[in-house]
Fold this protein.
Amino acid sequence: MRPMPAAWVSGRRVLVIVPAWNEQASIGTTVSEIRACVPEADLLVVDDGSSDHTRQRAAEAGATVCSLPYNLGVGGAMRAGYRFALRNDYDIAVQIDADGQHDPRYVPTLVDRLSEADVVIGARFATADDPYKVRGPRRWAMVLLATVLSRLAHTRLTDVTSGFRVSNRRAISLFARHYPAEYLGDTVESLVIGARAGCVIRQEPVVMRPRMAGRASHSPVKAAVYLLRAVFALFLALVRDWPAQLDDSAGASTAPTPQPSATSEPPRARGVTAPEDRATEQVEP
Amino acid sequence: MSGVSILGIVGSLVILLSLFEMLRRHRLREKYALIWGIVALGALTVAAFPSLLAWATTAIGLQVPANLLFFVASLVIMVLTLQHSSELGRLEERTRTLAEDVALLQVELERRPLLEKESGEESA
């Protein structure tokens, strides 16, 4: 039996998506923590073709695991997650990294902000006393990306490469179709797509923790390459043409939804086909 | 500026522009665009400064600059073809995995009602 749903859920179905690639050291703890902090939400771990025991660890900790047959990158894993959310008719999708950087205790706060937005980012650097420090070219890249995307989204964004996000149904249906697989595309370009499609993007300050396993690289060469790739990815995201028709197809189209308002079929669902008869299964028994 | 230079510059600019347009329309992925971009920029440099080519020819010890150009060009094309062959092999491996996965899932789906029926009869 589940405990009484907390107030922040208010009848909505919430799915937590955790993309994981070779994260056997941290995935178990992350899954247990999410289940403890937000027991109202369903949990889907997208195992991105891991060659270690990520799948088993996640399943042991009690998550539903969706195993991709081979590595697709974070973008591929996330699109699989959003498609799962769309097919199973979830109202809210929460994206949390598997490495333990994101504290699931922020989830209710982030979800609350959905009352005024379609996508809410859990952002570092939003407050002056944020302990998370980044220096050098990596910092310049982050500042550049944040500045450009703030203008595009008409709001102050400080951490656009954050993988800690909450999306409502409108954003889920958008990301289920268009979620870039390229490097940095999964965070930066997906925000550009969201802003272009008319999604309201907001951020909420969060404090991120150091990774549980593995370490971020501090090599200056890698940081410089990161800056170049960031500039390139941002430039491409800005000049690319995204289907303008997306504006009006806010509803869930691939799942037979009970709401009559959410049945509009998008005119263009490039590369993504979801037969309607496969959308009836539910995660919860 | 000689006619050859202009031809080279125009050619590489056409490559760069088509690269940009293909990227913009999602017809080309970044990882393939990178190597083509390098080729186009190299061609542009050589076309704009032919003296570079002459200098490189004497530095290596060749007689005719055109020979160096053709050698480098054929090498680049070979590397590109090789990259495509290896990508093709990877894709074949992946479609194979996918086909197997789909077939296995289908078997599982078809067997499920049978199994359920059997267990139902046993309990009856």
